[in-house]
């Protein structure tokens, strides 16, 4: 079954371009982004891995580790990395999992349980469901799931925006409105009573409706 928000991200052991890992140990106390790809040497994914490498420092600033996955063997990943650097200007600077036995893809609900055989004989179209982004918290719980079609490149700036919201709302009793970006006004969570809100926000809040209480971002300087 597919994973959903709040599920524990399945642990696994796998070979990657940076050596063998135990996923939960690799995450440690960090946040993590796991994003998957149907096959190596595919055009849209080539642009995605290159762009993700170019903004990796932004994830690192937020305490977020990045890891990619494809069913191809690690040797293919290393060859693909050269193409990514040549065409996109940035080589992957994060590990890429070689999921040659489909174990991770199946555990995360991205491929059916009966898939088997040589992964290099499968076409990208057969693996088209391997277009997921999972954001996983330090508690190893799934915080976000995004699934994209093969023909649409993923927006990793949006993943950063969501992580900003997740990290803010994990530490403060607020929610973020539509189109929110870091530093914008936020909404006091519905679980916070008015009496409790007055203690935290003595200057009050904007209230277009009783259930919409708007305050400045508590982390904004």
The residue ranges in which pLDDT falls below 50 over 5 or more consecutive positions are: none
Q: Regarding CATH, which class of the largest domain?
A: Alpha Beta
Order of strands across the biggest sheet?
A: 5-4-3-6-7
Shape: elongated
* CATH structural architecture of the largest domain: 3-Layer(aba) Sandwich
Helix/strand order: EEHEHHEHEHEEHEEHEE
Q: What does this molecule look like?
A:
The protein has 221 residues and is α+β, with helices and mostly antiparallel strands. The chain has two domains: 13-154, Glutaredoxin; 172-215, no CATH class. It contains seven helices and eleven strands. It has helices spanning 23-27, 43-54, 56-61, 74-88, 103-107, 156-171, 194-200; strands at residues 13-14, 21-22, 31-37, 64-70, 96-98, 132-136, 142-147, 174-175, 186-188, 206-209, 212-215. The protein has a five-stranded mixed beta sheet. The chain has a four-stranded antiparallel beta sheet with strand order 8-9-11-10, with helices on one face. A two-stranded antiparallel sheet has the order 1-2. Strand 6 (132-136) and strand 7 (142-147) form a beta hairpin. Helix 2 crosses helix 4 (74-88). 30% of the residues are buried.
Describe the SSE topology:
Blueprint: E1 13-14, E2 21-22, H1 23-27, E3 31-37, H2 43-54, H3 56-61, E4 64-70, H4 74-88, E5 96-98, H5 103-107, E6 132-136, E7 142-147, H6 156-171, E8 174-175, E9 186-188, H7 194-200, E10 206-209, E11 212-215
Parallel strand pairs: 3-4, 4-5
Antiparallel strand pairs: 1-2, 3-6, 6-7, 8-9, 9-11, 10-11
